[in-house]
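Lay summary. Proteins are chains of building blocks that fold into shapes, and those shapes determine what they do. In this project we predict the shape from the chain. Here is one chain we studied, written as its sequence of building blocks.
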Amino acid sequence: MQRTASRVIILTFCSLLGLFIGVGSFTFWYAQGASYLSDDPAACVNCHVMRPQFAAWQSSSHHAVATCNSCHVPHDLIGKYYTKAENGYHHSYAFTFQTFPETIRMREASRQIVLANCVACHAALMDGIAAHQSDPQQQIDCLRCHAGVGHGANN
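And here is the predicted shape, written in a compact code that computers can read:
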């Protein structure tokens, strides 16, 4: 009797694990998940809601020098893929449950990454600006005036 119960538990566990792996694998394939591991900006338009941002980036001044990853993920290996995984989770959840806002907005963590990348790419310019700040501890907010630079406006 005990052997039968343990076999049922093992069979149930293996079935649920197989179902989880199968559904997860299909979802990853269907959502073109591997494309998000690349640096190809076309991956950002796998979902239809990013098409306006992609089109705006193509006409922006940053098109020739920066991809989506250049601005939106940290440049270190671990930070890059951690951020991609975290954003992938949030995007998957939002699209699965239809909770994304009509106007796409960056989370604060994403905003901080973009600001850090602005400062890193424009370091020489930023040093000059920082020298004239009244409070050197205050973070420079590039996005306050240049919010649309990477996506077409304010070129």
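What the prediction tells us: The helical segments are 2-30, 51-58, 68-72, 77-96, 108-121, 123-131, 142-146.
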